Amino acid sequence: MSKEIDLNSKLFPEIKKIIEEGKQQVAQAINVSLTATYWQIGKRINEDILENKRADYGKEILHALSAKLVNEYGKGFSTRNLANMTCFAEVYPDFQIVAPLMRQLSWTHFKANIKVAEYITKHISKELLAKKLHQFAVTDQKLIENRNSETEFQNNLKGLRYE
Q: What pTM was computed for the model?
């Protein structure tokens, strides 16, 4: 005699929940590792470029390095992405600040913060910029969770400028 399995029992939904939670944990671990890798790449490039203190040299490095990395690892290492990585390490020079944020924010969120930083640097001092970036990083997750429209996002940026 074989017992028929009742798929409506608690077993199937509980197993499904375990699998989904495991998938989320894997995705988060990958994001943390990827973001840490990008920060380290940006820091290393900045060290090399800053040592030579030549903007043209920096552009040449990014183009040449990108060509090699794209060939070996794919388009995720384009010149623009390498530039984002260098900006990331400039905006967040202290890894101890970045590390806890990586568990909450994705690389996409950090790239948005970089754009905010570039915008803000044109309008406010570096000291105020550091303060605002910290505030923005803390509230960024809430903004993303609420799926604010582009207009709301821009209004939030304007609010940062005038405080």
A: 0.65
